[in-house]
Amino acid sequence: MTxxxxxxxxxxxxxxxxxxxxxxFNFALRMTGDSDEANDLVQDxxxxxxxxxxxxxxxxxxxxxxxxxxxNTYINSYRKKTKEPERFDYEDVENYYENVKPSxxxxxxxxxxxxxxxxxxxxxxxxxxxxxxxxxxxxxxxxEGFTYEEIAEFIDCxxxxxxxxxxxxxxMLYAKxxxxxxxxxxVKN
Length: 189
Known about the structure:
Shape: elongated
Radius of gyration: 20 Å
Low-confidence stretches: 1-6, 96-105, 114-120
Mean pLDDT: 77
Number of helices: 11
CATH architecture of the largest domain: Orthogonal Bundle
Strand content: under 5%
CATH class of the largest domain: Mainly Alpha
CATH topology of the largest domain: Rna Polymerase Sigma Factor, Chain: A
Order of helices and strands: HHHHHHHHHHH
CATH superfamily of the largest domain: RNA polymerase sigma factor, region 2, helix turn helix motif
Helix content: over 70%
Number of strands: 0
């Protein structure tokens, strides 16, 4: 596919890539734990995907291709953050107390309380507590519905490794959620 100016590239990108935006956002949100960071990650992913869309092989799995771009973008961003010291804008620090007003504090408190209650869910907490390799395969397989082959392509490992990690992750979740499942009537204690 070559870049042209008649809109074919844009139409192909919109048809192939855009339908996967919600799945990418959900995964980004689970990786980052912050909706703003997740939005930034999705935006970076789509910018890179569009920039290199002429390299995408039409007819292959666009969703897996986008997830791989997202994973690499996230890893590169994480590495960059860990290598450089945190920066503060002096002007922001200087004006912090002037910018905080009681009404905005109440709004922020309410928003934080709502999100804390959503994130307090025992299932989400159990998934979040898994080691990253296991958490990734559980999210991709059980939440996003990827096949083993797609996950293997995404995390760049053999299908057998995906199956093994998923099996071990599910066993860990079983142990972490056994009491919770009993309290909901799924298992008799």
